[in-house]
Structure formats: C-alpha cells, structure tokens
Amino acid sequence: MTDSPEEEATLATEQVFDGPPTGAGLSRSSSFKASSSGSATPALQDDTFSGFTTLLDLVVVLDAHLDLLNRRMRARTSLWKEKAIEVRTRAEDVISKRTGPLVARSKSYVQLGEATRWLDPGRPTAGSAEDSKRIEREKITERVELEVAKFRAKVQKRVSTMSSKWNDAHVVSLREKLSFSFGVLNIMASCLLLGFEPAWIPTWYSLQAAWLLPVRLYTYKKRNYHYFLLDFCYYVNVLVLVFLYLMPHSKILFESTYCLAMGPLLLAIPTWRNSLVLHSLDKITSLYIHIFPPFLLTSLRHFDPTAHQRYSALAEMPALQPSRSLVLSSAIYLVWQVAYYVLIVVARKEKIKQGRVTSFTYLQADTKGAIGKIIAKVPPPRREVTFMFCQFIYTIITMLPAALFAYDSKFFSGCLLISCFGVSVWNGACFYAFKDKRFDRELTALRRELEDLHRSSGGTTSPSVNGASLDGETQVEEPEEVSLDSISADTPLASESTGARPAVLQEATKSKSQ
C-alpha cells in the first residue's frame, strides 16, 4: 500500500535532517568514479565541499513541498473542472432563454460536431477553432443583414413618402404651373440671348442641363425607362458639353458634333413626334434635348462674333468639307452604336425580355407607326440588326443638309430650326386636342355605363356601405335621381380598375341637389 503525499513528504524531510544515507561514499575520488561510471549520486563528503550540504538539504526540502503541492492540485483539478462545467451549463441556459434561437443554433452546431467526431475521430469537432470562427462569422453576418434591412426599410419609406407627395393632386398642379412658367420663360430668354448676348447661350444651355437631366434620370429610373438614357440624343448632348468645357480646340469634335446635332438630332423632332407641351416637364425636357444643341451650335457659328476667341476650333474651320464631315460624323456615330449594342442589346438581353423598355422595343410596339410596320415585316432574329442598319442610313441621310448647307448658310440654319420647332408646336397643339378627345370618350363611356346601370337596376336599391353592398357587389343609391347632364368636365373620373364609380354618382347627385 502506498503512502499518502503527506507521509512521503515527512519521510523525505526526516531523511534529510538525520544525515546522509549510509553506504554512500561521499569522498572526492568516489565522486569522480561515480561520474565516470555514469552514476548520478553526488559525492560531497570531502571537507572542501562540506559547505554545500546545507544548500542541498534546502533544495531537497523545497522539492518535496513542491511535489506535495502539485499532487494536491492534481487531486482537485477534476473537482474544479466539474464545477466549471456546471457553471458554464447554467450560464448557457440563462443566455439561451434571453437571446433565443441564436445560441440554440450554436449549441446544435456543437452537438452535431460531437456526433460527427464520434463517428469519424479524425474529423474536427464543432467546438474546434474552425467551427467557432464559422459561428462567429454567421453571427456577424446576421447582424449586418439586420442593419442593411433596417436601412433599406428606412430608405424605402422615405422614397414612398416622396413619391406620394410628388403624386399628390396639389403637388401635380403646382408642378404643371412651374413647368408651364419655365417653358414660356425659357423661350423668351433664349430669344433675347440670341439677339442681345449670344455669348451667354452656352451658359444658359449648361444651367438647364444641370437640373433637367438629373430630373430625367430620376423619373426614368423610377418608371424603368432608364435604358432610354443611353440613346443617341443623350450621346450628342454629352459631346456638346465635352466640346464646350473640355476640348474647345478640337476641330474633329466640333465638326462631327455639328453635323450630328444639326442632322439626326434636330430631325428626330418630327421622327419621334416631340411636342411643345408647356404643362409637361417630361415633354419639355425631351424637346430641350433635341432642339437646344443645334440651337447652341447655330448661335456659335452664325450669331456670336466672339465665339472663335473662346472656341479656337471655329476659327480654324471657315467651311466644311462635306465628304470629310460625313466620314468623321459616321465614325463618331458608330462608336456609340457599337457601345450601345454591347451594353444594352447583348449585356441586358435578359432584362429587356423581362420588360425593360428600349428605343427598339418602343418603336416595335408602335404598330401604327411607319417604323413599327417596317419592323413587323422583318423576321424576329434579324429585327434588331435591321433596325440598327436602318438607323445608320437615316443618320447619314439627315446629316447631308447640315454638311452641305447649314454650316455655310445662316438663313438655311434658321429656317431648319424654325421648321422643326414649328413641328413640335403643332404636335403640342394636337396633344391637347387628343387629350380632350380622350376625356370625351371616357365621359361618353361613363354615361353609357350609368345608363346600363339604371336600366339593369330597375329602380331598386340594396343596403350598401360606402357604395359597396353587403354581398360584395357595387350598388348605386337611387339611380333614378342621377342626372347625366350634371356630370361636367370638372367631375373627377374614377378608374375602372379601382371600382370607385359610386364616388362619381355621389358627386353628380350633390351637384343636382345644389
């Protein structure tokens, strides 16, 4: 039976203080012999080393007590581990109750890892460093996703609030008034600047671009029309701005920009049926994009006597060479066409199939137009390529008047601008007439619908709440008292999709009773 740690330490201490053990020669010579033979017993009985005996005894005592302390610590280690596991289990239970599924899922990872470890001892457990890092990354990812979701909800709420305000009836009315005022003042200011200070027209053009184009970007992005922003007309406007502020000395840029602006861009007004509708900011912006670049370049060429001092390219080009101008302009056009084909037709093919509108899909959908009819006759796989080829031919044809006559003739340039602007004015007048006809058609359809309801109801009514009957069908209260003549142009028409027809009937009844 082995002695306890306390008894062993006491025995070792008694042996030290009782003297050296018997049979152990501590002479100097014996120590050398022991060392040469490999023995580890020290030989310190020589008087020369007798002073080290006390130090040796102290070392032995300390070693015995340290060994005793180490044995006691090992005996209590298991008890401490059990207590630590118990405390950790309690802490995990408390945390799992407060934090919910996050800690529970982490514990499931640990259990899964332990089961995997039991099946495959060579595989690391869930409690290893890899699993701990993975769990920590997942926690961080969840927190980041939560913050991103909160941020998106906040942004969406603000956008919805802005959209509701923008679409409010009073705001729409105010926007139309501002659009009308801006359109009239823009025409007047442009004419005055052309007559008195043509040098200020580039600045006037840039100021309008600084706020009209961002508004166009916002509205088109909201309506999923943002692929229109890569069309040729915006490309020419960018070229004009680059010439004005970055490369005023470039003859190639000015020559090609002039032909493209005075040719296909200006003549796109009758092609795309741009209209001067002063109450519509969208239509004013479209007209600005097409007519202001040629108006600006015409003023620089024919009306501004100091333009050659600020734009050295004009001083070096007293006349155009039509063949050279057509080649340069066609090359600049092809740069845009190739980029558009790669970025939109190829890269955004799936988006277009999902319903994103482009110039090609817009013209293709217009089956009543000449371009839509031509596209419909081409096989579907070749329609886009055919459309781009026809557009290139159209560009070359429309550049001919600019290269042959407009650059040298002030009168021809003025007549061309006035003619295209007149077409936009006529289209605007037709737009108001079309709007009135559409309103008349809606009003006529509403009157017929009221007559049908009056005949089908037979003068009977049913209980209703806010115009809706208890069985879910829309009912009309006292249809025989409704006067069709009381519905005027000021009476709001309800959309058929909203099912709000009783509001119109109530408005008509009120107007009759008054």
From TrEMBL:
It comes from Mixia osmundae (strain CBS 9802 / IAM 14324 / JCM 22182 / KY 12970). GO terms for cellular component: membrane. Residues 27-39 have a biased composition (Low complexity). Belongs to the GPC1 family. PANTHER family: GLYCEROPHOSPHOCHOLINE ACYLTRANSFERASE 1 (PTHR31201:SF1), OS01G0585100 PROTEIN (PTHR31201). This is Glycerophosphocholine acyltransferase 1. It is a multi-pass membrane protein. Residues 474-483 have a biased composition (Acidic residues). Keywords: Acyltransferase, Lipid biosynthesis, Lipid metabolism, Membrane, Phospholipid biosynthesis, Phospholipid metabolism, Transferase, Transmembrane, Transmembrane helix. The keyword Phosphoprotein does not apply. It is found in: Membrane. One of its GO terms (biological process) is phosphatidylcholine biosynthetic process. Residues 1-40, 454-514 are annotated as: Disordered. The chain crosses the membrane at residues 184-205, 225-246, 253-272, 326-346, 385-405, 411-434. The gene is Mo00929. It comes from the Eukaryota. GO terms for molecular function: acyltransferase activity. Residues 457-467, 485-498 have a biased composition (Polar residues). The keyword Transmembrane helix applies.
